Amino acid sequence: MELSVWLTFFAASWAISISPGAGAVAAMSAGLNHGFARGYVVTIGLVLGIWTQVVLVGAGLGALIATSSTAFALVKWLGVAYLIWLGIKQWRAPAVPLASADEGAAARTGIGALIARGWAVNAVNPKGTVFLLAVVPQFLNLAEPLLPQYLVIGATLGFTDLVVMGVYTALAARVLRALKSVRQLRIMNRVFGGLFVAAGALLATIRRAG
């Protein structure tokens, strides 16, 4: 991939990462529930989910999801159900201060579970697949080996997401530290629970092109 092409994709990847979506909600929710250090683990899962999408697109499976109504619907509704489940879980989360939440969450939620949560948010999302199918080919040089180009694309998307989602996580953790009352914490849990459900509802409106 030529430097000029990569720089254009690098700029586009920042816009992709910064744009609000289920990944941003997941990162902020993790910061809200676990603080920055532990909540940032979810971002690792989000990046793994992006890489899963890149692999699907590179292997041609993304085209199947984009063109097969059955495959598209299956992946879409799995994603919708998962986001709504996260929303309900967040809505019902206990309203406890961050210091107590960190200890309790550490006992209840392992690192692997947090990574799996982030992975599922991005991997089970046909909107991401269709988006990558529309964007990635514009930056590929078909006369050159494709694997190195996909590796560069995956690394670039991973880097920008690590930075952007880290900022989202830190902002949410900072807000949580400022919240003192049970009422404030309960409101925040319900706000983020509602955002997850809203993200699921938006995903449900996505239609397969053509």
Label this structure with key terms.
210 residues, mainly alpha, 10 helices
Question: Could you please describe the fold and organization of this structure?
Answer:
- The chain is built from ten helices and no strands.
- The chain is mainly α.
- The chain has one domain.
- Helix 2 crosses helix 6, helix 3 packs across helix 8 and helix 4 crosses helix 8.
- It is globular.
- 43% of the residues are buried.
- About 5% of the residues have low confidence.
Runs in which pLDDT lies below 50 for 5 or more consecutive residues are 98-107
Helix content: over 70%
Going by helix content, strand content and strand pairing, the class is: mainly alpha
Mean pLDDT: 78
The largest sheet, given as strand count, sense and whether it forms a barrel, is: none
Which of globular, elongated, flat, extended, rod-shaped describes the shape? globular
How many helices in DSSP terms? 10
Strand content: under 5%
Number of folding domains?
Answer: 1
Rg from Cα:
18 Å
- H and E order: HHHHHHHHHH
Give the beta-strand count: 0
N→C terminal distance: 31 Å
Give the helix/strand layout.
Layout: H1 3-18, H2 22-39, H3 41-59, H4 61-67, H5 69-91, H6 98-108, H7 111-123, H8 126-135, H9 146-178, H10 182-204
Helix pairs in contact: 1-9, 2-3, 2-6, 2-7, 2-9, 2-10, 3-7, 3-8, 3-9, 4-5, 4-8, 5-10
Give a brief description.
The protein is mainly α. About 5% of the residues have low confidence.
